[in-house]
């Protein structure tokens, strides 16, 4: 294979890798999805379960994916092929590539809404505006949302075609600090509003009576999505790591940063929500695009903070989207011998086209419904509630029983760090992770189809 002769690119600094992986993790999942899922699931109690899922499922799987990538120096399909040759395990990697494809197609549509809202904020949010109608009118358009979806895909393709160091690493090194600063500014604004305390109470005082199987499933699905796990994004990023990287520490940084940013996004959103409006935090997916602009409209300098917020959201989405495209492009480059630039463009265009039905689901194809979901939500449901947990389950079984937890431990610990992977890892990856995912997936699927 001609790519075996080529030197594989490596992250040039440890920070470069951590920011890239954290950039993948921090995205719409943290700023758009996490607050509304928390809001619809009752606030603090959900936050608590989510944090447990992050620790006992998220962290071990993060270590697993990074180690599989570093060891094999391959994309997800190649990783499974090289560690278990002549077996069907490569299909798990194949499912990951497919999942990346599906997620990016609708992710880019939502990111496109965010780009459009940067300009809506600039032209001013005023208290008398009907934000629900504004959002409805925006998404039920055809040309405008498709235009912004295209703009977002073009930027993503631009970064990925420039390569791992010159594209991804360079982009995240500028974008991630910007994201962090914007978020801090917004939190400061939010918690200093009069009446912010009520939002803090909702966010921080758990009421465990609201927890159901669905809450637990939502927490696990959110953990997968937000950490970019279950589809090989971290296998792919790990494949550009060199031997002298310690996995236990790097994984902890990435999981820690992602969790910190999600929790902080809650601090930016809930206090403002309760302080300024009487809208319920359980507004659902529209929270970011309907409720928040209404919140911004009510506060001093609101249009400016609204503008900052949508820049933040778009930046976060971009650093995640590049990792989604990278998974598919790495597969095409390693396995299909394609040239990177060509692969980025062709695959990017196909993903753009697959993203058009979710746009049309709010206009021409609004009659479509699958178990009560429109097209975009159906893509989201299949990817997040089925593909990611299934991918994570199979990856855990592979690591624990096929490649064996002990081998993975040795590979991860090649260079020792503060956190070394000990025997606890085998217990989590062989028993806790698979059982937790399997039980919750089965219950939740049964419930979805039986109402
Ligand atoms: N983690 C990203 C987010 O929170 C989404 C994502 C999922 C990115 C899977 C890559 C892989 O928005």
What does this structure look like?
- The model has no long low-confidence stretch (mean pLDDT 92).
- The longest helix is centred in the last third of the chain and has 34 residues, at 302-335.
- This protein has one domain (5-450): Amino acid/polyamine transporter I, CATH 1.20.1740.
- The chain has helices at 2-5, 14-25, 28-40, 44-72, 76-83, 90-122, 131-139, 143-161, 164-191, 197-204, 213-226, 233-238, 247-276, 291-298, 302-335, 340-354, 356-360, 375-402, 405-412, 423-450.
- Helix 4 packs across helix 18 (375-402) and helix 11 packs across helix 18 (375-402).
- The protein is globular.
- The termini are far apart.
- It is an all-alpha fold and 451 residues long.
- The structure holds phenylalanine.
- The site of phenylalanine has 15 residues, from helix 2, helix 3, helix 11 and helix 15.
- Residues 24-25, 27-30, 103, 225-226, 228, 231, 233, 320, 323-324 line the site of phenylalanine (PHE).
List keywords for this structure.
single chain, 451 residues, mainly alpha, Amino acid/polyamine transporter I, 75% helix, binds phenylalanine
Number of strands: 0
Total count of domains: 1
CATH class bucket: Mainly Alpha
What is the radius of gyration computed over CA atoms, rounded to a whole number of angstroms? 21 Å
Mind sketching the topology for me?
Blueprint: H1 2-5, H2 14-25, H3 28-40, H4 44-72, H5 76-83, H6 90-122, H7 131-139, H8 143-161, H9 164-191, H10 197-204, H11 213-226, H12 233-238, H13 247-276, H14 291-298, H15 302-335, H16 340-354, H17 356-360, H18 375-402, H19 405-412, H20 423-450
Bound molecules: phenylalanine.
Phenylalanine is lined by residues 24-25, 27-30, 103, 225-226, 228, 231, 233, 320, 323-324.
């Amino acid at each position: 294979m001609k790519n075996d002769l080529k030197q594989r690119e490596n992250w040039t600094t440890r920070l470069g890798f951590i920011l890239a992986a954290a950039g993948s993790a921090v995205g719409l999942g943290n700023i758009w999805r996490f607050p509304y899922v928390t809001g619809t699931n009752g606030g603090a109690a959900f936050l608590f379960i989510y944090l447990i899922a992050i620790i006992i499922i998220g962290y071990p799987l993060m270590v697993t994916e990074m180690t599989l990538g570093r060891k094999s120096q391959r994309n997800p399909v190649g990783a499974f092929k090289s560690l278990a040759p002549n077996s069907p395990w490569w299909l798990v990697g194949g499912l990951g590539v497919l999942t990346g494809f599906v997620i990016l197609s609708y992710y880019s549509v939502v990111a496109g809404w965010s780009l459009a809202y940067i300009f809506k904020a600039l032209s001013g949010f005023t208290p008398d505006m009907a934000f629900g109608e504004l959002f409805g009118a925006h998404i039920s358009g055809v040309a405008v949302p498709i235009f912004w979806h295209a703009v977002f895909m073009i930027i993503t393709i631009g970064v990925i075609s420039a390569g791992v160091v010159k594209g991804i690493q360079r982009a995240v090194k500028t974008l991630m600090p910007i994201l962090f600063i914007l978020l801090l500014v917004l939190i400061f604004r939010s918690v200093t509003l009069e009446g912010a305390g009520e939002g803090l109470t909702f966010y921080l005082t758990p009421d465990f009576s609201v927890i159901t199987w669905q809450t637990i499933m939502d927490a696990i699905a959110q953990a997968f999505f937000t950490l970019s796990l279950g589809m090989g994004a971290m296998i792919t990023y790990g494949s550009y790591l060199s031997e002298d990287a310690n996995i236990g520490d790097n994984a902890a940084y990435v999981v820690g940063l992602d969790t910190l940013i999600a929790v902080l996004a809650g601090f930016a959103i809930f206090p403002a929500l309760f302080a300024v409006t009487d809208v319920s935090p359980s507004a659902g997916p529209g929270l970011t695009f309907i409720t928040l602009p209404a919140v911004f409209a009510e506060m001093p300098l609101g249009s400016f903070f609204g503008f900052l917020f949508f820049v933040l959201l778009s930046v976060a989405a971009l650093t995640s989207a590049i990792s989604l495209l990278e998974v598919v492009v790495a597969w095409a480059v390693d396995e299909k011998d394609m040239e990177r630039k060509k692969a980025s463009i062709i695959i990017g265009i196909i993903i753009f086209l697959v993203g058009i039905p979710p746009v049309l689901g709010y206009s021409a194809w609004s009659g479509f419904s699958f178990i009560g979901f429109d097209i975009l939500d159906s893509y989201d449901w299949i990817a997040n509630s089925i593909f990611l947990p299934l991918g994570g389950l199979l990856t855990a079984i592979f690591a624990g029983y096929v490649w064996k937890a002990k081998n993975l431990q040795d590979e991860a610990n090649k260079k020792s760090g503060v956190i070394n992977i000990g025997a606890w890892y085998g217990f989590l990856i062989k028993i806790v992770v698979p059982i937790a995912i399997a039980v919750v997936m089965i219950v939740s699927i049964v419930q979805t189809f039986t109402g």
